[in-house]
Amino acid sequence: MSQAASSPAASKPAALEMRGVTKRFPGVVANDHIDLDVRRGEIHALLGENGAGKTTLMNILYGLVTPDEGEILLGGKTVTIASPADAISQGISMVHQHFMLVPVLTVAENILLGEEPMANAVIMDRKAAHTRIRELGRFFGTEIDPDLRVASLSVGWQQRVEILKALYRNADILVLDEPTAVLTPQETKEIFTVLRRLTAEGTSIIFISHKLYEVLEIADRITVIRRGKVVGSRIPSETDEDDLAELMVGREVQLTVDRGESHPAAVTLSVSGLTVSDDRGHEVVHGLDFEVKAGEVFGIAGVAGNGQDELVEALAGLRRPASGTVQLAGRSITGASPRRLHNLRVGFVPADRHRYGLVLVFPLTDNSVLTSYYRAPYSRGLVRDADAILRHAEQVINDFDVRTPSPLVHASTLSGGNQQKLIVGREFFGDLRLLVLDQPTRGLDVGSIEFIHRQVIAKRDAGTAVLLISAELDEVLELSDRIGVMYRGRLVAVMDGRSATREEVGLLMATGGREGPPPIIAEGAA
Amino acid sequence: MDFILHVPVIGLLLQFIGYLLSVMATNGSLIITLSTPIALGALCGFMNERSGVVNIGIEGMMLFAAFVGWYVAALVNGGAPSNPGPMGITLPLLVGLLAAIAAGVAVSALHAWLSISVRANQIISGTIINIEALAITGYLNLLISQNPIPSAGNFQSFVVPHAAASVPILGWLLTTFLAHGPITLTMLVLVIVLQVLLFRSRWGLRTRAVGEHPRAAETLGIDVIRLRYRNVLLGGVLAGLGGAWFTLEYIGTFQGGMTGGRGYIALAALIFGRWTPIGAFGAALVFGIADTLGQAVSFNPPTGDLGAVLSGVPEQVFSALPYLVTIIVLAGVVGRSIPPAADGQPYEREAKAT
Amino acid sequence: MNLRRARDAAIIPALSIVLALVFGSLIMIFSSPLILGLDLTLPLLAYKALVEGAFGSFGAVVSTIVNASPLILAGLAVGVAFKAGLFNIGAQGQFLTGGLAAAAVGVWLAHAPGPVAIPLALVAAILVGSVYGAIPGFLKAYTGAHEVVTTIMLNYIALYIVAYVVTGPLRAVGATFARTPDVGNATLPILVGANGHLGILFAFVAVPLAWWLLYRSTIGFEIRTVGAGPDAARYAGMHPRLLIVVTMAFCGGLAGLAGSGEILGLTGFMPAGYSTNVGFDGITVALLGQAHPIGIMFAGLLLGAMRAGAPLMQIEAGVPSQMVDVLQGAILFFLTAEVLVRYLFRIRAKSAKVAELQTVASSYGGQATPAP
Lengths: 526, 354, 372
Prior knowledge:
Number of strands of chain A: 22
Shape of chain A: globular
Number of helices of chain A: 18
Structural class of chain A: alpha/beta
Number of domains of chain A: 4
CATH architecture of chain C: Orthogonal Bundle
Strand content of chain A: 25-35%
Distance between the termini of chain C: 38 Å
Shape of chain C: globular
Number of strands of chain C: 2
Oligomer: heterotrimer
CATH class of chain C: Mainly Alpha
Radius of gyration of chain C: 21 Å
Radius of gyration of chain A: 24 Å
CATH class of the largest domain in chain A: Alpha Beta
Strand order of the largest sheet of chain C: 1-2
Helix content of chain C: 55-70%
Strand order of the largest sheet of chain A: 6-7-8-3-9-10
CATH architecture of the largest domain in chain A: 3-Layer(aba) Sandwich
Largest sheet of chain C: 2 strands, antiparallel
CATH superfamily of the largest domain in chain A: P-loop containing nucleotide triphosphate hydrolases
Largest interface: B-C, 55 and 55 residues
Distance between the termini of chain A: 55 Å
Structural class of chain C: mainly alpha
Largest sheet of chain A: 6 strands, mixed
Order of helices and strands of chain C: HHHHHHEEHHHHHHHH
């Protein structure tokens, strides 16, 4: 603590204090008497697992959630923040984990919204707005056209627009909720530079993350939250990843799963010249070629929106490829239906578990046979066998550690981790040839991630070919025997999974290996 | 050239297009008149849906407003004819108009409460409004008809001065767009005003944001619930005007179910018009043309082969035409017309657990 | 069945009915000056007559059941579609076209033996109703045109189809008003009372059939999955587009069957201005029955009782039978405004549970096209 006092930020006055903040949701205490103080001009990291209560705390600060107890002090004075409008007027801005951008509106419209400069009582003053936005845009070193539609921007630039929104409002306190989740390591570095420039001007920043190395790099101080409680504070110079991980999870954790040796055998999945178009008919996957062998994990890394979604849909039978062929153990499955793929023993864990993976209003029983309900023993002809379905559900729940009071409750009542384990349990069931995993651990707690990763390795070792698509670079690096990098609908590199470094892959993700800065406009945008 | 007109199918088609054009040219004013309730209904839907509330109850709102406007006007009139001002404006009619607007707003308030506060399924909420409006107006109208009271008459069309009307092209434009009653004229003004406001005003920007991504709007300090309430209630004013058109402008009496599906067609117009006021008005004109065609065929049938063919077509086909057109339009354009992203989604103010 | 679950499911509908009756009373009282003068006891008189007309005698009970059976079928036509996430407002049109088909075949086979004429007329009604239901299903599945608007449009179009056929090709010669000739031997036999025709059995067969289909068969599972999670259904290897068409055809068939019961069992011919609201009432029945076949049966019986009692209410209390429509709308309102009912009766809500009914299409427009 003596060093804490001598750190440069510690001497500065407190910009924000949260005292005893408590918020209960039905069945869970999201925030349990949390204390937090943030000083002027510091970057204060809030570290915790998914579901630890970081976002709830920040939503309270931002007036989106009403706390049950506790108080908030700004510059030493107690304030009431009942709505985002209050927060904004108190100089607080927030960049949310899921972008709060209106895709069909322009950059300017998104930034002005809520603080519109007016030409008269009714009509907005566009010119003044545009001048101001162009000015602010220089902060990033690049000018941005205020009339571009946000939907057409790349993910990295959408992030910048979010930060511009905060700058436009002259925020004293800026909250960033998992801002790097969608960025490449290079983009992350850029954002960090911007953040440091901001703190130099006196802005206080709360930086939420669950990535240890990032927190260690950017933060002046770190507060760790676990299950709604503050479990410790650290200064980066006095701690390391293992210490933080243990604090965050509450037990000693293995940060990486022991993937062991893999023994690749014959080619199982063979994709050649695969071209896929998106819903608007724009070609977003351009002539992809790759193979996945039995007993290996092939990971595809890439920034979200580089054609991965369409590739996965094409492989899962949800989207018809424009051209090219897909073969499973030598047999063509180009454009095969999901049913046929299932019958050929292909498992598929979709990225969006609420939209694709589960029917939330159905009980776990029905969800456990969602992809196999039509065949024996779950049904005979037209007649479903409720007993066989129940037995199957119980087995999945048991084998995959799904925590639930009963197999008859709705899937919506489970936590995200348990929902995902149910899906994984269903899709990993039986003897599989190929397993397609699309963002298999997005938004999960460390325990669930560890569990699922171990299951993936087990499947690999049982001889299944595993195709892993993930925007989480660390996950790809951790599990893959070989890594392909997807950029603008092409595989720009395939490398060995054990020797590849984060920087190397990140650079490819950001630029595709070409020179120059990453483009502003997203692939396939009109 | 003449021979083409005698080739069976193509000839008939060309004749039909010619006839359609002549109907459109000679009945421009009638087309706008008949498209008024559809346009006003579509504007009501526009106010609702741009801010994220689906309103399938426009039909019921208009029907209820039509009834209330008519009955209040008749009550105020009390059987004593008043001295009409320009466009047949009388005090009872004005009071009736206000009552109709109030009725539209009242029913909208119900829809707003169910859709926004109760967070009920908005399509079901609208359906209830339609069912209940048809039932209550039918019930009360039946009771009233046992002791009928004289109607207060209706608004008259603006008369374009003869000198102006006889100028070749200008005259046609003037009569087409100005020879209308006050409600239709109001509609024409509203279409333009709302179009400008949608893209240029603070209200328009906030409405678009709330209809697309209410959470984003909320995080910038915009009160989503209040904005939605305000827009739905303002939409009620428009539905009220649309209802008043039936009983206070088009004809001076009320009949059960007289809106005849115009409120639903308005929704199709809104989709066809891609959720913009001008687009919706243009689409409403298409339905106005379909409506007009039936009238034109019976009053001013075409000559020649086409006349022979059309006279063989049962009158019911022409009556069903607007409904058929609606289906065709929906089937044809809907895939390319994208609704506001949050349309129909109730908004919950407090964010759920992480 | 789990009794407590049934009670929980029934409590809000029951209280909604109570509140609707109160609302109806207010309308009656406030509009009573239009009849004879302010009368505070009018509701009591009216409701007494309503109950008497529905249950007061054996004949009244039969009449209730006769009124209920088409309502139950129409309720299923709406309710089963609800399960697939579809809002079938078109039961009315499917009912009318089905009835018209039954009338046409009935007239054609009026002199054929009953065992031949009746099944053929029924099959015609089911087929035509199915096709009329499949049209909006097809439009929804393959063009994205939302069924809420298209089915309403098809209801209007059905009116004109009936008007055309009955005033034109099928008009009975020498009749005082536009109607088809009698269906003769295709008339459904009377089983009980004065008018308890064979058609009442259809409803009570359709209820368990629909229940089995929805909850015990694979196709029912597919239908419910499409309704509750269309994308999950696609992922699961189902065919949402096909299922939408099939479900709508099934529902249209039920509504068409309801229409045939009315024509072959009650009127014996199709009049041009056939005024009935059975199809629209089906919406009330389905919502009141919470889209569950058993619930729909009870809701249909209740509304059937109201329809059966309405004439006596009109005679004894002078309250037009349209009051029943007002009551229906009010029931729907209170059902939807569940929070209001809970507040008025101090019933606490159960833990937040997503009802399957809430997955019914909440919007319409371009996004509706399910991918293949």
